[in-house]
Amino acid sequence: MGKLSGIKVIDLSVFLPGPMMTMMMADQGAEVIKIETQAGDPAREQAPFEAGQSVWFRNLNRGKKSIVLDLKSEAGKARLWDLIASADVFVEGFRPGVMQRLGFDYESVSARYPRIVYCSISAFGQHGAMAHHPAHDMATQALAGFLSVNDGADGTPVVPGTPSADMAAGLTALSATLMALIGRQTSGKGDYIDCAMFDSLLPWCAHIAGSAIMGGPSPVSSHQRSLGGAGFYQVYRTSDGKHVVLGGREIKFAENLLGALGRPDLIAHASREAGEQQELIAYLQGVFATKSRDQWVDWFADKDVAFAPVLNFREALDEPHIAERGLWIEHDGAHHIAPAIRFASETWHPAPAPELNSDG
């Protein structure tokens, strides 16, 4: 039993945002029925593979059922209506207008089943000039302003390492769906959620884009505290070509580190405005270049400083902290990233991801 036991979800989404959202529901006991075409979710074919399945697919679709339906056929449509009849949540990730053409838009579904919570996930929402513009994560980040500050020292934007717009949409859709389910307990009615990747990501800029939000100029990374303009929120290269970070701007960390390095005269520099700490940054660049990454890890072991080595995923997953928290597990020959949401009163074990049409 999980917190969402008894909740039934019909999921027509593929790739990342929708499957992430519905897997989080499945992890907590919801019955999630993944509706697929004969070709299946494209993520099924994404390498690498382990124990006969895509690692990507398994880690976004565990615990679900799979049913193949041809929604252009009358038989496929009839079967979907049968499934919706007992469902609480309906999730789709098609371009705006597709569900209406198929006859399963919110107006049609809610007319028959007013208790349904219907969630549409798209790049730019169901209406507006951008509604039909094709986009995946990076294009959405670019149009929302985020890629402009995902840049190097020369100001050139680079491909982001995290699909933030996808993930933001999945989390926003989940939150909205749970809110609607709670609201339904009082009203007796479901609701419609127009979840856009763009809309979901935009609020994430509040701490870095203040000047633009208030109608002024856009932030420049080299003059932002969290984007490269501060000595104690910065990436440094070590003698072995690897990297470490200082990740805390509180003055106590500057006092602790610069005191230990014998340079208390530079402590005041850490309180200067971002973009005015070049002397401090240059000094720290020189210092960190004198030892290897792992030597610095040892050196910082007894220092109260927000410091961390930059690890690759292999190194990160092998860290003792991951094992202590049970965040990376092997089950039935396959590896899983454990859900971040786990309850003290419940024990979580990964359910298998479905083979195509295994519950058809």
Automatic annotation (TrEMBL):
InterPro entries listed in its UniProt record: CoA-transferase_III (IPR050509), CoA-Trfase_fam_III (IPR003673), CoA-Trfase_III_dom3_sf (IPR044855), CoA-Trfase_III_dom_1_sf (IPR023606)
Identify the keywords attached in UniProt to this record, alphabetized: Transferase
Name under which the protein is recorded: CoA transferase
Protein species of origin: Sphingorhabdus contaminans
PANTHER family the record matches = ALPHA-METHYLACYL-COA RACEMASE, SUCCINYL-COA--D-CITRAMALATE COA-TRANSFERASE
Q: What's a single GO MF annotation on this record? A: transferase activity
Q: Cross-referenced Pfam families, in alphabetical order?
A: CoA_transf_3
State the source organism's domain of life: Bacteria
